[in-house]
Amino acid sequence: MKRNAQDMTLSARRISRRALIAGGGQLAFGALLFARMRHLQVDQADEFLLLAEENRIKVRLIAPARGVIYDRNGVPLASNEQIYRVSMIREDADDVPAVIGHLRSLVRLDEEELQRALREMDRRPHQAVTLADRLSWEELSAIAVNVPALPGITPEVGLSRAYPLGQDYAHVIGYVGRVSERDIAEAEEVDPLLQTPQFQIGKIGTERQLEDVLRGRAGARRVEQNAAGRIMRELDRTESGKGADVQLTLDAGLQNFTQARLGQESASAVVMDVRNGDILAAVSSPSYDPNLFVEGISVPDYARLRDNDHRPLHNKIVQGLYPPGSTFKLVTLLAALEAGEIGTNETVYCGGYTTISNRRFHCWKRGGHGRVDIAGSLRESCDVFYYEMAQRAGIDRIAAMARKLGLGVRHDIEMSSVSEGLIPDRAWKRTNRGEEWMIGDSLNASIGQGFVLASPLQLAVMTARVASGLDVSPRLVRTIGGVAQPSGVAGPLDLPRSWLDGARNGMYEVVNASGGTAGRSRFDLDGIKWAGKTGTSQVRNITAAERARGVSRNEDLPWERRDHALFVGYAPYDDPQYAVSVVVEHGGGGSAVAAPAARDIMLYALSGGVPPLDAYPDSQRGEIEERLSTLDLDPSVARSGGTTKA
């Protein structure tokens, strides 16, 4: 009995101990649960409230309107047009294939664009991706009505870039395009706008160079949505800031005329105001429609441009580099005058060639020009005269003068891929070719051949500096946001007027005197005359055998083996205002092809419209009238001439 009582007491103690442990455990668990609940409900209340708000409230960026680009007279060159589109956020869609299937029943979806959008949604499931663009109002309305049944889908009204004058400004202004992964990777600081669906940024040209001022500032709006993702109301909004408007120095009428005048030639032309550096026209031909690139160009359209042997995608204005030919003789002449190696009245005898180290350097005129002075050397473009100048001045002086006149210099202008060209000297050849400079190199350079390369823009700058005597640089942007940009004039050129007058007189005789190489391109506009210089640059070597039997005519050669045709000029002769340069790739002779085009362009600039027939020689008016009547001018910017433009 006693033992049983002891066993019962021990068992009761064990039960009490277990109950105590269990109770303690329950109490500890309850305390832990209470602490956790307090942490969630009190300490983290704000965080969970924020998460709940994020599910209910969404913040959407508002893309700004891009700044408009105008010409000097206020004509829009790059503007914005309203478009309708539909986007999708993958995370907000319950069943993506079902939603897209329903959307297909409402609007037509391009399969290629859809697949691109699906790939983009895989990379960015939390961001809106455009499924269809440029919808009609009826299509947008149909989507808006069915939004409750389309989770993740948002119909939107946006802006897209448009180029109303099409191909006239493709190479200057360029175009915008959708933001690519490469654009984001290259950005120093990633703007949230770059991840906005279908956001467009400048890809080339002025659109790219002035991207920071044209883009504008993003806005934002906070919207409340229900569980189905439908927007119930807008809570608040911060408006976006429109990009700055930009006014260029270009004249839309002159630009359109120049583009039409060059037609489908592989060519380029630049017109500058010699007084302030304003570029009034800058054309690369043939051109293309930049509107094709805004939403992404099709493969066939791009292949057509890429495979064209006249290279419409290439910006010949600043990227095209050509041997300047005889237009470079202006540089050689001024270098010889600066070196004191020639007097203003000195003459040189041309017998048709110069012999250096048993090698003949030929003049373009087989029998030679006889004795020529400075004016005659330019008027008849005598090569032998400049071979002599090269030997007297030396290549280093010639190179220094070329740079003083704007060649071999990368001009700071708001266009893509601006080249500095090539003005060689002794140090250049030693560094780049590992060879010493030869006297023959100097002779070739003196007439704009050999290693010398220049762009049409640089040739226009050279002509403007010779004409004005000013250290003028090209200016493309006139105002940004209404603020005037600096003029292109830095001061006098620091060349004696007598030297410049010698070059100018020779240029005057090129187009106005008997025997001038551009005599057929003279004009008289109410007493205004002009001056210029022809150039023809070889793209092939002429062998001794060919020279002996007679050099082949350009028209008898395949197009790609013909000479380049060049012309530079300015007007009025006695009060310079405008300079022009024209380069026609494989055009043949400068006097036959480039000079007539330059004359028409200059007359438009002077008269403020289509050149009046009475400015041309009587014998040419029928031909000129027929040519001008066939030009495809844009009626929105074309003007009639007849009065001199101040």
Distance between the termini: 136 Å
Approximate helicity band: 25-40%
Which structural class do the helices and strands define?
alpha+beta
In CATH terms, what is the fold-level topology of the domain at 83-159? Ribosomal Protein L30, Chain: A
> How many H/I helices?
22
Poorly predicted segments: 48-52
Kindly estimate the percentage of residues that lie in beta strands according to DSSP. 15-25%
Question: Key features?
Answer:
23 strands; 37% helix; 7-stranded mixed β-sheet; elongated; 20% strand; Ribosomal Protein L30, Chain: A; 5-stranded antiparallel β-sheet
Task: Please tell me about this protein's structure.
It is a single chain. By secondary structure, the chain is of the alpha+beta class. The chain has a domain at 83-159: Ribosomal protein L7/L12, C-terminal domain/Adaptor protein ClpS (Ribosomal Protein L30, Chain: A). The protein has 22 helices and 23 strands. The strands form 7 sheets. Strands 2, 3, 4, 5, 10, 18 and 19 form a 7-stranded mixed beta sheet that branches. It is elongated, with a radius of gyration of 36 Å. The chain starts with a helix and ends in a 17-residue tail after the last helix.
